[in-house]
Amino acid sequence: MCRSADRDRGAGPSRCPERGVGREAETDVTDQAPRYAQLAESLKRAIAEGRPGIGEQLPTEHALMASHKVSRHTVREALRLLSEAGLIARRRGAGTVVVARETPAAFTQRLGGMEDLLQYARAARLRVLATSRVDGDPALVRRFGLEPDTAYLQITGLREGEEGPPVARTVILVRADLAPGAIALSELRGAITDWIERQHGIAPARIEQAIEAHLLTPEEAEPLQAAVAGAALMTRRRYLDAQGRIIAVSESVHPGDRFSYDMVLTREG
């Protein structure tokens, strides 16, 4: 136990540790968390309090090194944790900025049947980034199993929840004779296949889905506000009508911490 009298003795240096030295007190020595994890938690608390606010820049690496008295490696590892938590993102020309005050909740999709698959598109809003007409592109025909003699409308966009960074980057190819026009697409709410059913009376009779692990490319990471080469989940779907013709296909890339599947299987017979 350290007593005040120990400080007053002139027999040598004090055995009592000083508290509150520097910008913030050091974590108790019994805390075994790595220093970068401690720094990440400190920055998380500051972000949650609006210091800095959403859209504002984080201090530079040098500033964080100086204010927290840590190495560059410690700062970079702490920032990596914040990026994986969906709180910060690097933006071209703007440095590292805050994109959320709290870690966004992962979007969970329950899989029990076709309606569960369609529910995802209905629940996560699509923000369209670009559209183009595709007609017989050999690479896309192979990638999505398209009908080579059929034209499609390609839609690139972001799936978004109520708040926080996007849930997924999505590429959708809709058969051109069924695709919504520019105005209808801009006003679209819910799943494109629901719109097609309302307008054309054609509904998916079968949905084929493939799921695979994926690493985010720079093209995907930037709009998703995620780290390049970060772990992601890719889903690819083909929506077919009763005659087996393609209505639409989609490919969605979800950062690993923003999406999960909840699958329920029931024994038949």
Automatic annotation (TrEMBL):
GO molecular function, one term: DNA-binding transcription factor activity
Protein biosynthesis found in the keyword field: no
Pfam families: GntR, UTRA
One example of a Gene Ontology biological process annotation: negative regulation of DNA-templated transcription
Biased composition (Basic and acidic residues): 1-26
Alphabetized InterPro entries for the sequence: Bact_HTH_transcr_reg, Chorismate_lyase_/UTRA_dom_sf, Tscrpt_reg_HTH_GntR, UTRA, WH-like_DNA-bd_sf, WH_DNA-bd_sf
Protein name: GntR family transcriptional regulator
Protein species of origin: Marinicauda algicola
